[in-house]
């Protein structure tokens, strides 16, 4: 009788030990370039204009996930690289959330980036999930600051002027709350952009952490 009890017990203990060993041998993912906010940050209302000419307010964030970053269509490097990256990764990232995943390209150069200019720009990337938005600086600056991002205008007397801006990408949840920021890798001699491999690894990690909270 003792052997009949002992053998199943040994089998169960071996199974448990195997599971525990497997769990602890798995590499734990520790994002190096992603900031997950301890508490979601509520965004105040704003008034923007999309590349289609329609009004965009906080309500357009509800019911969807939004990856947003700031830039401008005349940007020589960060913006086209980031937008091409997000367009290419969109379908894979979408698999990790049940709600629609959209991409907001926030132009901080409203002087040149008219809705028509933005429409031509975003359509080039052939991703329907991309929306170009902008506004006058009175609306734009506080909105960008809410996202934890920044931009600074240089002299606009030269028609080829540049705009300094953040290279990070932020994540907004379906309640219109800021929940995470994906930061670029800063390497001397390289354009500062968020690495695709970091985004592919960190995005599902962020979603899992939010689901636990």
TrEMBL record:
Transmembrane segments: none annotated. PANTHER family: ELECTRON TRANSPORT PROTIN SCO1/SENC FAMILY MEMBER, LINALOOL DEHYDRATASE_ISOMERASE DOMAIN-CONTAINING PROTEIN. CDD domains: SCO (cd02968). Belongs to the SCO1/2 family. This is SCO family protein. It holds the Pfam family SCO1-SenC. InterPro entries: SCO1/SenC, Thioredoxin-like_sf. It comes from the Bacteria.
